[in-house]
Amino acid sequence: MNPPHIEPLHGPFAWNASSLDQNGGWSVELDIDDIACLDDALNTVVSRQIAWSSLTKTQFPLPVLAQKLEAISTELEDGCGMVSIRGISPARYTSDELHTLWFGLTLHLGTPVYQNSQGQLLRDICNEGDGVGKTYGQMDTGEGVFLSSRARTASTAQLRFHTDRADIVGLLCVSRAKSGGETRIASSVTVHNEMIRRRPALAALLYAPIYRSRLGEEKGGDQMFYPLPVFGCREGKFTSHYSRTYVEAAQLLPEVPKMTDDQWAALDLLADLADEYCVEGVFEPGDIQLLNNHVIYHARRPFIDDADLGYKRNLMRIWLCPPGNRALPEDHAPLWRIVEADSLRGGIALEPAH
Question: What is the C-alpha separation between 221 and 214, in angstroms, rounded?
Answer without folding.
Answer: 9
